[in-house]
Write a structure and sequence with these properties.
Helix content is 38%, strand content 9%.
Length: 86
């Protein structure tokens, strides 16, 4: 097997796993435990770096989709738990 073929397979596997991780992140965390007002995708890559003055919230009924609003963290969660499970 040529080295170019190995590199192409590696890139394909990394890309596929990244898409799977984003799918899991967006269904399990984003919108249920944590809401980021300016999410652009692939938030799982740097957990904790994306928390922008988060406000604790019982539910996400305050979500207005405005980038000027603070991020929301579900009550009982913290930035530490997002780092731990993210």
């Amino acid at each position: 097997m040529s080295s170019l073929n190995k590199i192409a397979r590696f890139i394909l596997v990394i890309f596929s796993l990244s898409l799977i991780a984003e799918l899991i992140w967006s269904t399990c965390v984003q919108g249920s435990v944590y809401y980021c007002s300016d999410e652009v995708g692939f938030g799982y890559l740097m957990p904790g770096e994306w928390v922008h003055d988060a406000t604790v919230s019982k539910d996400f009924s305050e979500v207005t989709n405005s980038m000027s609003d603070p991020d929301l963290i579900r009550e009982g969660w913290s930035e530490f738990y997002l780092w731990l499970y993210g």
